[in-house]
Amino acid sequence: MKKIKLLTLSLTAFLAVNLNALSLDDAVKKALESNFDIQSKNYDYIESLENVKSNNANYLPKLDASYGFTNTDKANAGFESDEGVASLKLSYNLFNGFKDLALKESSIYLSQSSQYSLNATKQDIVLNTKTAYINYLDKQNALDTYKSAYILFQEQYEDSKNRYEQGLIAKNDLLQVQVNMSSAKQNVVKAQGDLKIAKFQLSNILGGIDLENETIEKLNEQAIQSSVYDEKLLENRSEIQALKMNLQSIKELEKSAKAGYYPKVDASVSHNKYYDELSKNIENKEENQNIANVTATWNLYNGGYDSSQTEIYKIKYLNANSILSKTKLDIKLQYENAKSNLEVALDNLETSKLALLQAKENYGIVKNRFDEGVSTSTDLTDANYLLTQAKQGFNRAYFDKFIAISTLDRIIEKETY
Question: Which Pfam families does the entry link to (predicted)?
Answer without folding.
Answer: OEP (PF02321)
